[in-house]
Write a structure and sequence with these properties.
With about 750 residues, the chain is α/β, with parallel strands linked by helices. Helix content is about 45%, strand content about 25%. It contains 27 helices and 27 strands. The longest helix is centred in the N-terminal third of the chain and has 31 residues. The protein is elongated. About 35% of the residues are buried.
Length: about 750
């Protein structure tokens, strides 16, 4: 009996588990049928549902926004998304959610009962609703085209014919501001093959390159594909073509596109090729001779008179499934995967990319849900002051958590950038950081400024400066508590970044340059970009302790940044040795696992119990200490070879009491000096009691805040001459800079003179 009960219990548990799994699978499938932005059914759902529309009397209404691509280019994807969402919401309100679909881009279609439908009434209602549309409380006029087709749909071929002719009819109706209506039979007759040939030159041929337009490429490609031996789809795209247009002008950019199209025609001859839009080209050809053809194309593009941006080429070799749409999608995915990798020109779509594409599709389908359900968490990595190890900042980083699995930013940020959705993530992070900072302030807890990372796409797809200011002001958060991080590569890609940095500065935000020295630009960039701090690229920390050339390069970068008036921050620091070396070099701030890995807010609060927080007053004090350049050239004539140095000893020190001071920073000559003359009492940091003349000189300097000379102060068996000056003060702390200009040994009267 007991065994029977146990068996029954196990069965019930198993059944419950299976039901839960089935429920989860069902929910995932439902979500995969929905368009992320509009919430409408997507093309996947349409393909699954098509058999339900095989009727003797079926009507379909299609509407698309006129010049939607231009709206995105002129006003950004943020505004374009708002327009698309409003347009789709109005469409759904008139036709219902069950039978409406976002077919592609801005084309919406809805299936209706032909006998019960009054298409004209629906069109007029759509017009009326959109006239009163407001976005951000501003009236917006959305011009759109509309078409109604109706007739018998018996099979997949009829269904495909209905959608194909709907697309053609909408193109012809573009700009007419009226509803066009056909029976399916009329549409077939009007848009037959002969008519298409006549109309190609008017609305399907690409006017600039004279290549096939996208829809015609799909039409002909679908006819050719079944009979090809080993078909291949090639995608070609220029890296940073937008930047090329901005730098050299659109006329030269158009010449580049025409040159590429002529090279494609020349090398790929009779194969099918098309310019879809912008600098996006596709070729359908056989695999035979492919590598030779691509090599010739790349060589010919390199040899043109003006310097073009490099090509990123994706290649998809068709398998047993020959779907042209899938082929174009996979080839583009392969090409896009190497756009940031300047060492590769051609990438084949393989199993590795197939897995990445699955991730891409998951992110695309679930991103909005992740934001709504707060699956994306903000993690904070502490940043400390090199001279004090006090936490002076924190960097906000995103982690996508699904159940117990956490996705790192490297997995989803590139996908969101390619989808032009990254601005939504970055503004979400801004909102979360603002909420966390205000929550801590309201509880009376100390806070430090938090840096947030912005993508280059943020500046393209929305007015990111205004959006951040609006959010910070609405929360009544001091602007200095939010720091803007922008990677070096973005400054290179956009000539307008100076304007954005200036706008942030005028609003009271500090701006940091991330990944400085990553290889995208020269050091001359610092002359023209007014940033407050540069973050040294993490690659410099690799083998830092063992690689002398690496350390020399870092020291030079710190010195150059200091001369330009920028603070420096080293990230990726993992050891005490690296930390101390960077502190001696004059690096202002340190970040890395040596301090702490990124943690959630709760763990950050725990860390603050063991890491001192830098106050706002201390921050200004430490900024002044950090910005002093201790490595400027200084001519001198060493008289004592044993103590000879290339640069005079100098240091930034803090007065501890009437007899001692603490070395906050020093150049290597200073550290060598205090070691040689046995000044140090605590790891070259805390100086032993100093002479009365020296301390009197420091007090005199504090009173005058001018450069003061200290002559022949007797220190540990030496007479020294020094120059001292006050740098900064806070509470009872005073920081001085000290130049040692003269040393004389008391025993033998030999001198060391630094002029």
């Amino acid at each position: 009996m007991i065994l029977l009960i146990l068996a029954l219990g196990v069965s019930i548990i198993g059944l419950s588990s299976r039901r839960k799994n089935i429920s989860n699978i069902s929910q995932m499938k439902d979500r995969s049928r929905l368009d992320v932005l509009t919430g409408m059914h997507n093309i996947t759902a349409l393909d699954e549902d098509r058999a339900s529309y095989y009727h003797d009397h079926q009507g379909v209404i299609g509407m698309d926004i006129d010049h939607f691509k231009m709206i995105n280019e002129m006003y950004g994807h943020f505004f374009g998304d708002q327009v698309m969402k409003s347009f789709s919401d109005t469409f759904i309100s008139l036709l219902g959610h069950e039978h409406t679909y976002r077919y592609h881009d801005d084309l919406l279609i809805g299936f209706v009962d032909e006998q019960a439908c009054d298409a004209t009434q629906i069109y007029q209602a759509m017009q009326s609703s959109l006239k009163t549309l407001k976005i951000d409380d501003k009236p917006v006029a959305i011009p759109f085209s509309a078409c109604y087709l109706h007739g018998d749909i018996h099979d997949h071929e009829d269904f495909r014919e209905m959608l194909r002719n709907l697309d053609f009819a909408l193109k012809e109706a573009k700009g007419d501001r009226k509803l066009v209506s056909y029976t399916l039979a009329e549409a077939k007759q009007r848009f037959n093959e002969e008519y298409l040939k006549q109309r190609l030159a008017l609305y399907q041929g690409d006017k600039l390159t004279h290549m096939l337009e996208m829809n015609h490429f799909y039409e002909l490609g679908a006819q050719y594909l079944p009979d090809m031996i080993q078909p291949v789809l090639i995608y070609l795209n220029f890296r940073n073509f937008k930047g090329y247009n901005e730098r050299y002008g659109r006329e030269l950019g158009d010449q580049l596109l025409m040159t590429l199209s002529s090279r494609i025609h020349e090398i790929f001859d009779e194969n099918l090729s098309s310019r879809f839009y912008g600098d996006h080209f596709y070729i359908l050809c056989e695999k035979e001779h492919l590598e030779n053809q691509l090599e010739r194309l790349i060589d010919r593009m390199h040899s043109i008179a003006f310097a073009p941006p490099s090509l990123a080429i994706g290649v998809y070799v068709f398998t047993s499934e020959r779907n042209l749409y899938t082929g174009c999608d996979n080839a583009k995915f392969a090409g896009d995967s190497i756009k940031e990798n300047m060492t590769l020109t051609v990438r084949y779509f393989d199993e590795e990319l197939a897995e990445k594409k699955q991730t891409y599709n998951y992110i695309n389908a679930h991103f909005e849900e992740a934001l709504a359900q707060h699956q994306i968490k903000v993690y904070y990595q502490p940043i400390v002051r090199a001279v004090s190890k006090a936490m002076c900042n924190a960097e906000a980083l995103s982690r996508w958590q699904v159940n117990d699995q956490i996705f790192a930013p490297a997995h989803f940020i590139p996908v969101l950038e390619s989808l032009h959705l990254i601005y939504k993530l970055d503004l979400y992070i801004v909102d979360q950081v603002i909420a966390d900072l205000n929550d801590k302030r309201q509880k009376g807890q100390d806070v430090v400024p938090v840096s947030i990372n912005l993508s280059g796409y943020d500046f393209q797809d929305c007015d990111i400066v205004s959006e951040i200011i609006k959010r910070v002001d609405a929360a009544h958060l001091p602007h200095e508590l939010l720091v803007i991080e922008i990677t070096e590569s973005i400054f290179v890609a956009s000539e307008r970044m100076n304007d954005y940095v200036k706008a942030f500065h005028e609003a009271g935000f500090k701006v940091w340059m991330d990944d400085f020295g990553s290889g995208y630009s020269s050091l001359n960039m610092l002359k023209s970009i007014d940033v407050d701090l540069v973050k040294l690229d993490m690659k410099f920390m690799k083998d830092f302790d063992q690689d002398e050339s690496n350390r020399l390069m870092v020291a030079d970068l710190i010195q150059i940044a200091s001369r330009m008036g920028c603070e420096t921050l080293a990230e990726g620091v993992e050891s005490e040795e690296t930390f101390e070396a960077l502190r001696m070099m004059g690096c202002a701030k340190i970040q890395g696992y040596y301090i702490s890995k990124p943690v959630d807010l709760a763990h950050l609060m725990e860390k603050q119990k063991t890491i001192a927080l830098e106050s706002a007053q201390e921050s200004k004090y430490c900024d002044a200490v950090s910005q002093v350049n201790l490595n400027d050239p200084f001519t001198f004539y060493p008289l004592n070879e044993q103590l000879a140095v290339k640069v005079p000893p100098r240091a930034v020190v803090e007065l501890v009491d009437d007899t001692t001071f603490y070395v906050l920073r020093g150049n290597k000559e200073y550290y060598k000096l205090i070691q040689d003359v046995d000044f140090s009492a605590d790891g070259h940091k805390l100086i032993r009691p100093l002479s009365k003349p020296f301390m009197e000189g420091l007090h005199r300097c504090f009173e005058t805040h001018e450069w003061e000379s200290i002559i022949r102060s007797p220190e540990q068996g030496f007479y020294m001459n020094s120059l001292v000056h006050v740098i900064s003060t806070v509470d009872n702390r005073v920081a001085f800079i000290i130049y040692i200009t003269y040393i004389q040994k008391i025993e033998d009267q030999k001198t060391e003179n630094f002029k």
